[in-house]
Amino acid sequence: MRTTLQSGMRPEQKRHDEGFSLIELLVVVAIILILAAIAIPNLLRARMAANEAAGATTIRTFTTASVIYNTTWGNGYPPNIGVLAGPSAGAASCNLAALMDPVVVTAPYQKSGYTFAFTAQGSVVLPTPADCGAPGSTGFLATATPNIPFITGTRSFCADEAGTIHFDPTGTTATTEAACDALATLQ
Predict the structure, then answer these.
(1) Element (H, E) at 166
(2) What is the rounded average pLDDT for all residues in the chain?
(3) Which strands sit side by side in the sheet containing 137-146, from one edge to the other?
(4) What residue spans define the domains of the chain?
(5) Per-residue pLDDT tens digits for 15-36
C-alpha cells in the first residue's frame, strides 16, 4: 500500500530548500571581495585628493588672514599662528584677531590629514602699535605637511606674503621663504 502526502509527494521525497549551499555563499563572498578590491583604492585616492585640496585651501586662507591682519592692525604680518585665533569672548584685537578656523590655529594645528605651521619671516615691524602684545614681521611662511605621507596626502604646500601657493611632490616641508619660492607653483 502506498501512502501519499497531501501535496502529492511520496514520503521518501523531502524538500531541501532550507537555505543557501556552501558554493552559493562562496560565490557571493568572492564577488564582494572583488568589488572591494576595486573600490577601496579609488576611495583612498579620493580621500587623499580631498585632503590635499583642503590643505591648499587652508594655506590660501593663511595668506588672506595675514594680509587682513596687516591692514587692520598696522602691525605687519602676524608674529605667530596663535595671533590668528579668536578670543573666547569679546571683540577681536591685535593679539587675538579671530581670522582663522580655531581648529587650525590651536595645537596640534591639524585638520584634514595635514599639519599646519605659520612662522614670522623677515624683520620685526617697529614701532609696535600700543594695543599689540608682540611686534609683527615683514614676512611670513605658512606650510601644510601631510600627517602620514602618501596616506593622508602626497604633496606639502607653502606660501609667503606674495600669496602664491607652492607645492613639494615629496611632502617635505619648506623651512624658509626662499625654499618655498623655489618649489613648483600650484596652478
Answers:
(1) strand 166-168
(2) 90
(3) 110-111, 114-124, 137-146, 156-160, 166-168, 184-185
(4) 22-185
(5) 556 788 899 999 999 999 998 8
